[in-house]
């Protein structure tokens, strides 16, 4: 029995195998792990949310408030414990034109409508479509995200004081070395504290979090967008809302699948889908720019810090707000070098290095490698995960169809007397494999009776029935009699229902 969808504080075991909130609260060890993980994520979220606000063309508070409401809400309604949802670049890119052309109120209305779309898509079973995403696309998704995380750090490493580089190197060294000594405290948190102390005590002038943008000084408040409730407003925001809903769901569900693999647990993808919608609706009504799951912060939470429950997600949102509102002056002095070091290590940990080893590439079919590379190239080139994953899936479909199109075989197996010949058809018969079926028979030299044996084949669609009708018509036009035998029950039902009723050219 899974925990209540309306509250994280359920003591019943979850189907994912993750610790329940009650178990975490009763265990000082688990609570410390979840709390420190949430703190590290909150610190890493601050510059990210500010950056994404700039991409969307809105005030930094809009992104920071979105990260707070998304994280807190998804902790209650999400289907994947320990996954972090907040303001993201993918969503920022989609909604930026709305903010630029129509203003903040239309942006908020777009976020709310996108949330409604996600709820509807989730309840309609859209999450089940994840099964059609091949493993090679998933590997490409992970690798491209790792590359994007690393590329996002370049602005903080170019045209900066030379002192930034040894600070980043020190941060990376701490994050790499400390877990080999102790795991009592998350290494990223130690790196952030050490580098902050170093820069403050030495008074070196390096970029800080405060340089990224102004931090809010008050709590978010309930906000109803001031837009006309008419069809014109719907015409403006609906296309962007639908795009945001699809992009957000795709990134969230694939991130959930990645966390499932990392933690060897399972999660409720349908609940995660509609939960993302609820989180975006809540975020919109609190003046946020919306968001979805974040791969980088999720990897910090799960893989680096060892969090496994909803507590870390909830605390990440709460601590984010506490830090920026209550301790804004302190947070502002954190050097960006510390957060760059954290994100570079997250990038390295996220990348699937095994997928590019020469031994792996030699064993892997070329089509699989092509799909993975296509996904990576398109995502990195467009900075759009939906386009990249779509390109990867499309490439996989084309290569699969090309491969299976030649798997159907027609064998001349037997001659029964002088007037009967048997052809055996083997393989899965559908539009990609049955198109050239008509070319694999000898219509000129055939005897009077022709038997087509489909015992080792399966008819999947109308294209195959039409192809069999065409074969039969070609033989009969030359005076031959044709019998189709060996159809299994499902194939026979489809053939009987459609044969002779498809018309010429179908």
What does this structure look like?
- By secondary structure, the chain is an alpha/beta fold.
- Among the domains are: 24-152 and 214-331, no CATH class; 409-498, STAS domain (Transcription Regulator spoIIAA), CATH 3.30.750.24.
- The chain is 61% helix and 8% strand.
- The protein has helices spanning 21-26, 28-56, 60-77, 89-102, 104-123, 135-151, 164-181, 187-202, 231-263, 269-285, 295-304, 310-326, 328-332, 336-350, 358-363, 366-382, 385-404, 431-434, 462-477, 489-498, and strands at 85-86, 292-293, 409-416, 420-429, 449-459, 481-485.
- A 4-stranded mixed beta sheet has the order 3-4-5-6. It has a two-stranded antiparallel ribbon with strand order 1-2.
- Helix 18 links the parallel strand 4 and strand 5 (449-459).
- Helix 5 (104-123) packs antiparallel against helix 10 (269-285).
- The longest helix has 33 residues, at 231-263.
- 48% of the residues are buried.
- The model is unreliable at 1-15 (pLDDT under 50).
């Amino acid at each position: 029995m899974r925990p209540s969808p309306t509250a994280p504080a359920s003591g019943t075991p979850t189907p994912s195998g993750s610790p329940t909130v009650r178990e975490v609260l009763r265990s000082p060890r688990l609570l410390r792990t979840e709390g420190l993980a949430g703190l590290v994520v909150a610190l890493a979220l601050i510059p990210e949310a500010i950056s994404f606000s700039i991409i969307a063309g809105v005030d930094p508070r809009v992104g920071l408030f979105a990260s707070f409401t998304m994280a807190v809400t998804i902790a209650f309604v999400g289907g994947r414990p320990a996954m972090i949802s907040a303001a993201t670049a993918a969503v920022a890119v989609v909604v930026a034109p709305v903010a630029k052309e129509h203003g903040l109120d239309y942006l908020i209305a777009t976020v709310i409508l996108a949330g409604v779309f996600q709820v509807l898509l989730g309840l309609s079973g859209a999450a089940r479509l994840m099964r059609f995403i091949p493993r090679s696309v998933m590997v490409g998704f992970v690798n491209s995200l790792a590359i994007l995380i690393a590329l996002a750090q370049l602005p903080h490493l170019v045209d900066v004081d030379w002192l930034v580089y040894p600070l980043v190197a020190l941060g990376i060294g701490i994050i790499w070395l400390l877990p080999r000594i102790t795991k009592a405290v998350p290494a990223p948190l130690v790196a952030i504290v050490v580098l902050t102390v170093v820069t403050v005590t030495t008074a070196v002038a390096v970029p800080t979090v405060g340089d990224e943008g102004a931090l809010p000084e008050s709590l978010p408040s309930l906000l109803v967008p001031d837009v006309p409730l008419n069809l014109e407003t719907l015409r403006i925001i609906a296309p962007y809302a639908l795009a945001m809903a699809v992009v957000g769901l795709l990134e969230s569900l694939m991130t959930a699948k990645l966390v499932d693999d990392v933690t060897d647990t399972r999660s409720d993808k349908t609940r995660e889908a509609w939960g993302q919608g609820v989180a975006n609706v809540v975020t919109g009504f609190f003046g946020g720019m919306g968001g979805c799951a974040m791969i980088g912060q999720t990897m910090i939470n799960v893989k680096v810090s060892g969090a496994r429950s909803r507590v870390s997600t909830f605390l990440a949102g709460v601590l984010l707000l506490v830090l920026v509102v209550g301790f804004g002056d302190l947070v502002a002095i954190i050097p960006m070098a510390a957060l760059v070091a954290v994100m570079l290590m997250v990038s390295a940990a996220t990348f699937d290095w095994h997928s590019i080893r020469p031994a792996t590439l030699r064993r892997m079919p070329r089509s699989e490698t092509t799909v993975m590379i296509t996904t990576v190239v398109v995502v990195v080139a467009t900075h759009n995960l939906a386009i990249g994953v779509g390109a990867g899936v499309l490439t996989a479909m084309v290569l699969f169809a090309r491969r299976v199109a030649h798997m159907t075989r027609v064998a001349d197996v037997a001659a029964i007397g002088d007037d009967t010949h048997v052809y055996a058809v083997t393989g899965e018969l559908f539009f990609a494999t049955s198109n050239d079926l008509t070319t694999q028979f000898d219509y000129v030299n055939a005897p009077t009776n022709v038997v087509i044996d489909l015992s080792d084949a399966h008819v999947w669609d109308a294209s195959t029935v039409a192809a069999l009708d065409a074969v039969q018509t070609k033989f009969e036009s030359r005076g031959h009699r044709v019998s189709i035998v060996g159809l299994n029950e499902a194939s026979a039902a489809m053939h009987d229902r459609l044969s002779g009723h498809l018309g010429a050219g179908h």
